[in-house]
Amino acid sequence: xxxxxxxxxxxxxxxxxxxxxxxxxxxxxxxxxxxxxxxxxxxxxxxxxxxxxxxxxxxxxxxxxxxxxxxxxxxxxxxxxxxxxxxxxxxxxxxxxxxxxxxxxxxxxxxxxxxxxxxxxxxxxxxxxxxxxxxxxxxxxxxxxxxxxxxxxxxxxxxxxxxxxxxxxxxxxxxxxxxxxxxxxxxxxxxxxxxxxxxxxxxxxxxxxxxxxxxxxxxxxxxxxxxxxxxxxxxxxxxxxxxxxxxxxxxxxxxxxxxxxxxxxxxxxxxxxxxxxxxxxxxxxx
Length: 286
Hints:
The structure is a single chain. By secondary structure, the protein is mostly helical. The protein contains eleven helices and no strands. The longest helix is centred in the middle third of the chain and has 47 residues, at 118-164.
């Protein structure tokens, strides 16, 4: 990838919108292949298990439980089985497949100036998915271990502080939770480009994570601003499409269809913007 110039955040969103418009059909094809099946499964789970079968007072039962086993038993099965299934399906399958396929299309246009066919992008995503699966499993696993250690340290420090004063213990707990939140944001910002490293540099496993950390070194605050702006844009676009669709969703159940269509249109833009940011980071670190 030949360095050309460095992008401002405005440039990144402008280039992303241009790539999204010019490769709209290709991106919609990728969405139909990778995102639509997930959206259908997610909609089914939401309607079948998370709407009618969840007791409204389950949080109260958890709070009133006298033991950990009682608290776990009070949690609806939908939140202990189906929700984790949906989250894992997206995190380990849909996310890497969408990231790799959209990256191939976006980088092909922005850097090389040619159109990567949907079939080629999809085949490349499938070929690299096993490496992506293992790498992301490692990324999530490292975060899980760090979260467990942080929870233990926060609990220990808060307990020691509480032996001196309850107020002091509460303050230590709050500070610890804020520090853990800041650490989580830092980690996920640094690891966000692992799928794009796999897609464009053919690096996997610990090498991909290390490369993502190299690309994002010194860029954390800028990337936090980028992710906040991107989240706002995606939420606004999704909300607008849902609002427009609600005018026509007079038939029961049609609202779910509108939500799925909005997802197919909006979500690819997020992946395109991440790919453009990846290009910018590559040029800055060249």
